[in-house]
Amino acid sequence: MWLNLSSIFNKLSHDPNIRAIVLSGAGDRAFTAGLDVQAASQGTLSQNYSDPARKAHVLRHHILDFQSCISSIEKCQKPVITILHGISFGLALDICLASDIRLSTSTTRFSVKEVDIGLAADIGTLSRLPHSVGNLSWIKDVCLTARIFDSGEALSAGLVSRMYKDKSEAVTEGLKLANLISEKSPVAVSGTKQILNYSVGRTVEEGLNYTAVWNAAMVQTQDVKDAMLSGLQKKKPTFSKM
């Protein structure tokens, strides 16, 4: 499933017909309940190796492969809006933190669940959460306890940006948001996502320099001319595919 997820996002990233992506879980019960512990216990962790170093070597590559699958969401050129609903444990946090905009429902329940199964979350939550939420005390609270928290708390902490009544409403509003984004220049949208992601964890000076290099090429687009002309003519611009 993880490999399929990566393949899908890599394909969507380069599809000129796609302008924005909305991701939700199937059904109403859960976005994801997290790791299938039984399946995991019968997989790589259960295999025998001649010594600890060789087992560590295999496990390291196994973890890196799965990290790469989730990072494909973050690396996708198109904005990704994640709708968190129902049970949103473990992997739900990894996935949504790799996306661009996070929405939830009034009944969503979250948990950074990994310490309850004897490990530190290793697919992205512990690395991305400090960049997404500014309150380190709250981050350590939920990560060290694996306690379940609701959408109200997630909203106040900044984990999600909007909360809706139920999944149906959240998906409807998420699609409206995606449609609004899709009306913008795909060159401008892709560049905005790229520059924002680059700037996380870097100095303002580094971000400014990267922006200057990026826009030195990307302002040379017909989209800029069309947008300015539409503003003068007071009409809505239409932008071509990437």
Describe this structure in words.
This protein has 242 residues and is an alpha/beta fold. It has two domains: 2-182, 2-enoyl-CoA Hydratase, Chain A, domain 1 (Alpha-Beta Complex), CATH 3.90.226; 186-233, Lyase 2-enoyl-coa Hydratase, Chain  A, domain 2. Helix content is 54%, strand content 11%. The chain contains eleven helices and eight strands. The chain has a four-stranded parallel β-sheet with strand order 1-3-5-8, sandwiched between helices. Strands 2-4-6-7 form a four-stranded mixed β-sheet. The radius of gyration is 20 Å and the shape is globular. The relative contact order is 0.13. The model has no long low-confidence stretch (mean pLDDT 93).
Brief account:
Pathway: Mycotoxin biosynthesis; Lipid metabolism; fatty acid beta-oxidation. The protein is of the alpha/beta class and 242 residues long.
- Extract low-pLDDT stretches: none
Q: Any idea of the CATH class of the largest domain? A: Alpha Beta
Largest sheet geometry: 4 strands, parallel
Helical proportion, percent range: 40-55%
Strand line-up of the largest beta sheet: 1-3-5-8
Query: What is the tally of beta strands?
Result: 8
Radius of gyration: 20 Å
Portion in beta strands: 5-15%
Q: What is the CATH homologous superfamily assignment of the largest domain?
A: 2-enoyl-CoA Hydratase, Chain A, domain 1
Output the helix-strand order.
Answer: HEEHHEEHEEHHEHEHHHH
CATH topology of the largest domain: 2-enoyl-CoA Hydratase, Chain A, domain 1
Number of domains: 2
Mean pLDDT over the residues? 93
- CATH 2nd-level architecture of the largest domain: Alpha-Beta Complex
What structural class is derived from the secondary structure elements?
A: alpha/beta
